Each structure stands twice: as C-alpha cells, then as structure tokens.
Amino acid sequence: RAQIQNSGYDGWWSDVENSRRFNNNYFVSLVTKGWMPQTRVDNNSAKNQWVNSNLNFDNEVHPEMMLNTDLCLLYSNGRTEHEEIRAADHDCCAWTIPSAAPRAVRVYSQGEFCGEPENVTEFWSTLPTGTDDADRVEQWQAWQERTGERPNRIFADIRGACCRGDRRAPDCGSVTHPTGQAAKEVFEFADDEAVWLKEFKNAWWFVTNTRNQQLKLLDE
Predict the structure, then answer these.
(1) pLDDT, tens digit, for every residue of 16-56?
(2) 135: which residues sit within 8 A by CB, 6+ positions away?
(3) More exposed terminus of the chain, fewer Cβ within 10 Å: N or C?
(4) Distance (Å, rounded) from C-alpha 194 to C-alpha 177?
(5) CA nearest 200: which of 23, 5, 7?
(6) pLDDT tens digits, residue range 136-191?
(7) Going edge to edge, which strands form the sheet with 35-38?
(8) CA end-to-end span of the chain, whole Å?
(9) Residue 114 and residue 29: Cα distance in Å, rounded?
(10) What's the rounded Cα separation, in Å, for the pair 210 and 163?
(11) The model's pTM
C-alpha cells in the first residue's frame, strides 16, 4: 500500500482480500471499478491520486487508489487517441463498459461491476464493443432494436454506479474504447490471469537473467 509518511500518497491498489494475493486483480480493478481524482492528498498540492469512486464504496474504511502512472495504462483524456491523464488537471471519471472485459467481471470480480451485483451487470455486459466506427454504429443500432433500450440511458446508469452516483460526470475519454497506452494489454490481463502470468514470467526472466555491463555493486 501507499502511505503518506513514505510517499505522500494514501491507499491500497487492491481490495482487502486481493491485497494478500499474487494475481491479476490490479488489472481487474482498473477495468471493473470507477476512478475519480483526489487532489492535494494530506493537503500537499504536489500529491494527487485517483480513488475508487464506486457509488457504494467507502474509501474511509479501506481506501483504494491509483496513480497517474496506473490510470494511463488504460485511460486517457482523449476520445480517439492517447492524451495523458493527470489527477491534478482532469476532473473526470475513469470507467469503461463491462462488455469490454466480460471475463474480468464474471470470473475475477464475481459478477460485480462498480459495486453493482451480477443481476445488474449481466445486462450491461451485453453492450456491443465494435472494432471500428462503422461496426460500432451497426452493432449499437442492432442492440437498441433488440433490447428497446436507449444507450445514453444505460451509460448514465453505469456512470452513476462508477462515479459516486453522478450520472452526468464527465468521462475520461472514451468509455467504450479507452485509448490508454496499454489498453489492449490491460483488457487481456484482466480477462485472463494465465495470459498475465505468462507475460510476467517472461519479463521476470529477462530482468533477472540479462546482464548489464554498466551495473556495479553498491560497495564498489
């Protein structure tokens, strides 16, 4: 966890149960929870972070946080291309639709999305994702005809759950296709822990077995 006396930030990157486990919950949290900025942590203008903004979540009991360097992996202030997101400058809510990573919601979040139970998120998980603009328009039209629902109303419902009940909170970029610098990988790792573990093992082997001739022992 981050502690004010050490880094100036405050909170855990995960919930109580997953904080003691080695798993993909970091990525699941990015995808299945809402995040809003908290500025001037402990009244320090240089310390700004993002906190869990699920409607029914109590940050006083077990504060959950992310830094700019965490949120930028998935989210962006730009709707079509990456634009750096900063808690100090962007008063927005970072969230994405549950259908973007359905296994993350169903398998790793026990059916919950932004704190809402499975019977609610099951319908939200039917939202189309589309791969390009034309495909998205066609899919949304078909979805609307099939369900009789208006997308804007559903988005407002989800936004309310993810953004402290504010159905009109400004979004951090696109909620259907986030443009963070590693959005594709975040969704993959959130949806499949085995994929993340494989990549982690490869990265661990590289950093522990690749010698850098310029490195020196601390006592040299």
Answers:
(1) 899 999 999 999 999 999 999 999 999 999 999 999 999 98
(2) none
(3) C
(4) 23
(5) 23
(6) 778 888 889 998 988 888 899 999 999 999 999 999 999 988 999 999 999 999 99
(7) 35-38, 49-52, 65-66
(8) 33
(9) 9
(10) 44
(11) 0.89
Which pairs with CB-CB distance under 8 Å and at least 24 residues apart come from 49-54? 49/2, 49/9, 49/10, 49/11, 49/87, 50/87, 50/94, 51/11, 53/93, 53/162, 53/163, 53/164, 54/114, 54/115, 54/161, 54/162, 54/164
Strands 35-38 and 49-52: antiparallel
**Cα 193 to the chain's mean position, in Å?**
16
Render pLDDT for 66-93 as a digit per residue (tens, 0 to 9).
999 999 999 998 776 778 899 999 999 9
- List Cβ<8 Å contacts ≥24 apart for 68-73: 70/13, 70/26, 70/30, 71/30, 71/35, 71/172, 71/180, 72/180, 72/181, 73/30, 73/180, 73/181, 73/182, 73/183, 73/185, 73/186
Contacts of 44 (CB under 8 A, 6+ apart): 8
d(CA 187, CA 191): 6
Instruction: Give dist(CA 73, CA 82) in Å, integer.
Output: 10
- CA gap 35, 93 in Å, rounded: 6
